């Protein structure tokens, strides 16, 4: 498997980019999977999938939504006690595959964060990631809580940026990327699109969804608000 430049990742809405280097653009990955779990953060899934949906009109990415069963996966409170207002503002996603019978050719796997990844029972998700990991080209996950569980057999890592920035490649050649949850994942996915599918696609898709990608790892008002100092290289002085 051809090894691409390591992924540079960032937390707390900072820029996320892929290191420059030669890329085999003749065979970009086509087959994507999302490892769903209950109470996932919806923007971790729908944020990245939105530009990829538009990309599907120019290329041929394929998507599998994978879950423990084919039953609906709900974005709802992990525990009823959390719903103190007795709200019913929840929604669900219909999986296309199960962890027991996933597509055999997944190249990129997305694993969302959210309350379910921190407080829910996601042992089945972890087992699926461990099983699938050796055959992946890319594993991208949101949030730090399960990073040690998701990341199997990593050979190198480094902490660089506001809280944590992980970038590493394992012995099988799988590129592993992490980002904090919510909108910072959009910075990551556009960095990924630029590196793997090309600058033109990244620029055009940013225009399509009208998203201003942050490229400077120090351009992070939320890290400033929470007084988290940068520990990596920054473009700003």
Textual characterization of the structure:
By secondary structure, this protein is of the alpha/beta class. The chain has a single domain (29-76, 89-225), classed as 3-Layer(aba) Sandwich (Rossmann fold), CATH 3.40.50.880. It has helices spanning 42-55, 115-119, 123-132, 147-150, 184-197, 199-209, 221-225; strands at residues 7-8, 17-18, 31-35, 62-67, 73-75, 91-93, 97-98, 108-111, 138-142, 167-169, 175-179. The strands form 3 sheets. Strands 7-4-3-8-9-11-10 form a 7-stranded mixed sheet, with helices on both faces. A two-stranded antiparallel ribbon has the order 1-2. Helix 1 links the parallel strand 3 and strand 4 (62-67). Helix 1 crosses helix 6 (199-209) and helix 5 (184-197) packs antiparallel against helix 6 (199-209). The chain is globular and about 45 Å long.
Short description:
The chain has helices at residues 42-55, 115-119, 123-132, 147-150, 184-197, 199-209, 221-225, and strands at residues 7-8, 17-18, 31-35, 62-67, 73-75, 91-93, 97-98, 108-111, 138-142, 167-169, 175-179. It contains seven helices and eleven strands.
